[in-house]
TrEMBL record:
<dbReference type="GO" id="GO:0046872">
    <property type="term" value="F:metal ion binding"/>
</dbReference>
<keyword id="KW-0627">Porphyrin biosynthesis</keyword>
<dbReference type="InterPro" id="IPR033644">
    <property type="entry name" value="Ferrochelatase_C"/>
</dbReference>
<dbReference type="InterPro" id="IPR001015">
    <property type="entry name" value="Ferrochelatase"/>
</dbReference>
<dbReference type="Pfam" id="PF00762">
    <property type="entry name" value="Ferrochelatase"/>
</dbReference>
<feature type="binding site">
    <location>
        <position position="32"/>
    </location>
    <ligand>
        <name>Fe-coproporphyrin III</name>
    </ligand>
</feature>
<keyword id="KW-0456">Lyase</keyword>
<protein>
    <recommendedName>
        <fullName>Coproporphyrin III ferrochelatase</fullName>
        <ecNumber>4.99.1.9</ecNumber>
    </recommendedName>
</protein>
<dbReference type="GO" id="GO:0006783">
    <property type="term" value="P:heme biosynthetic process"/>
</dbReference>
<feature type="binding site">
    <location>
        <begin position="48"/>
        <end position="49"/>
    </location>
    <ligand>
        <name>Fe-coproporphyrin III</name>
    </ligand>
</feature>
<feature type="binding site" description="axial binding residue">
    <location>
        <position position="15"/>
    </location>
    <ligand>
        <name>Fe-coproporphyrin III</name>
    </ligand>
</feature>
<dbReference type="GO" id="GO:0005737">
    <property type="term" value="C:cytoplasm"/>
</dbReference>
<keyword id="KW-0479">Metal-binding</keyword>
<comment type="pathway">
    <text>Porphyrin-containing compound metabolism; protoheme biosynthesis.</text>
</comment>
<dbReference type="GO" id="GO:0004325">
    <property type="term" value="F:ferrochelatase activity"/>
</dbReference>
<comment type="function">
    <text>Involved in coproporphyrin-dependent heme b biosynthesis. Catalyzes the insertion of ferrous iron into coproporphyrin III to form Fe-coproporphyrin III.</text>
</comment>
<comment type="similarity">
    <text>Belongs to the ferrochelatase family.</text>
</comment>
Length: 322
């Protein structure tokens, strides 16, 4: 497309996942910054995917549905044609740079970036935005970054309902159940960087617990990397052991750091954590993930529109010499 497209480009970013079991090695190699995994490492990751998908690989479609649902929500809320969504993945095609390149080809001059995780960390969301901004600058596209939306009312409402529904699954055990909020661990050095990740996760957890009327809750980490350096803890498996010793017999895991069904949810919680909970005599249930829930899409759409308004105000002040 020649000329300038007046629509606002929305780069919808997420971690990415391989499209099939055949793509796991290339995906893992990209995560490892170009260093191929050992045979043992590859088998470990492949076996995890095999355990949750059973020969069918629907995970990639989750992100596609989220991007499509956000496009529909923006069209309904702001008017068709005002915003155009593009995908940009960290470790799989279309990569973040591919999404920006597609915008440039379509003549997009202004873009907004949003990541499918509500809380900000310089090691996660910050890295996505850095790559997107660098590519946008190369291509002459004005780029505005959304850092977080972890307390958006529609997000909290969607999670509140899922917690209530999850507790209902526990039947007679719901009154004594503990709601265990979780998120992906990061290297512990972020605590020395004044990074807001941990605080924002706790703020989200507290807001959801209050909205759902939950008194018994706590936070834990999960899915830490194996890098030889300390990661934030305790891990969910350790937390379950502690809870068992304290007499807790029912837990509702609420992964507030994740928004869709993927490996860290379907394997790390549904298989690994649930198996450990059973060994400890704990009944473990999990909330349904947000995926393309309408309230989650509302939170994303309203956050995008607010960012566009802010970018427009900033541009106006600059032109006016303020």
């Amino acid at each position: 497309m020649s000329g300038t497209n007046r629509a606002i480009g929305v780069l919808v970013m997420s971690y990415g996942t391989p499209e099939s079991l055949d793509g796991v090695e290339a995906y893992y190699t990209h995560i490892r910054r170009g260093h191929p995994p050992t045979a043992e490492q590859l088998e470990d990751l492949t076996s995890r995917y095999r355990a949750i998908v059973g020969g069918v690989f629907p995970l990639r479609e989750n992100t596609n549905r989220q991007a499509d649902a956000l496009q529909r929500t923006l069209d309904e809320t702001a008017g068709a044609g005002k915003y155009v969504c593009y995908q940009g993945l960290k470790h799989a095609a279309p990569f973040i740079e591919d999404g920006i390149a597609a915008m440039a080809e379509d003549g997009i001059a202004q873009a907004i970036g949003i990541v499918l995780t509500p809380q900000y960390s310089s090691m996660s969301v910050g890295g996505y935005m850095k790559r997107a901004k660098e590519e946008a600058d190369k291509r002459g596209i004005s780029f505005a970054a959304i850092e977080s939306y972890h307390l958006h009312p529609a997000l909290i409402s969607a999670l509140e309902q899922r917690v209530k529904d999850g507790l209902a699954k526990l039947g007679g055990e719901r009154e004594e159940a503990l709601v265990l909020f979780s998120a992906h661990s990061l290297p512990a050095r972020i605590l020395e960087m004044n990074d807001p990740y941990q605080d924002q996760l706790l703020e989200t957890s507290r807001a959801v617990a209050e909205a759902a009327g939950v008194k018994r809750w706590q936070f834990t980490w999960q899915s830490a990397g194996q890098t030889g350096q300390p990661w934030l803890g305790p891990d969910i498996l350790e937390t379950l052991e502690t809870l068992a010793k304290e007499g807790v017999r029912a837990v509702l895991v609420t992964p507030v750091g994740f928004v869709s069904d993927h490996l860290e949810v379907l394997y790390d919680i549904d298989l690994e954590a649930k198996r450990r909970a059973e060994e400890l005599g704990i009944r473990l249930e999990r909330i349904d993930m947000l995926n393309d829930d309408g309230r989650y899409m509302q939170a994303l759409a309203e956050t995008v529109m607010a960012a566009n308004d802010m970018a427009g105000s900033a541009a106006g002040e600059k032109e006016g010499g303020v």
